[in-house]
Amino acid sequence: MEKVETELYCVKCDEETPHIVTYINDEIQTIKCNKCGSSHGIDKKELLEHYTVDTVEHILTEPFKLSKQLKEKKFSILYSLPKRLLTKPYRIAKDIKDILEEEE
User: Fold this and answer.
1) Pairing mode, if any, of strands 39-41 and 27-33?
2) Sheet holding 39-41, edge to edge
3) Which of 23, 31, 72, 104 is deepest in the core (most CB within 10 A)?
4) Which ranges of the chain would DSSP assign to H, the alpha helix?
5) pLDDT digit string, tens, across residues 41-97
6) Residues 47, 100: Cα–Cα separation, whole Å
């Protein structure tokens, strides 16, 4: 998940104001005006469904990516592997928490 701050025209404020644009997998999920708080995007249930599908696909392809990296980079990847394995569940949980809090 990536959040980007930008200036956009807000219909409610009737002027350009700072907005937060939230992306998941390079797709815009929500656009929220920092001034009035109005938000536009897909609903939370649909967002979680998209995120879940993308996450499952990522998990299923990860062993193939890892195998390819091991062949290309030999054993240099083994140094970063423990950190990646330990932090991945935390990163996924944080993304899900951010999605659930987005609509509040």
Assistant:
1) antiparallel
2) 2-10, 15-24, 27-33, 39-41
3) 31
4) 44-73, 81-102
5) 766 677 677 777 777 787 788 888 878 877 787 667 777 777 777 887 888 888 778
6) 9
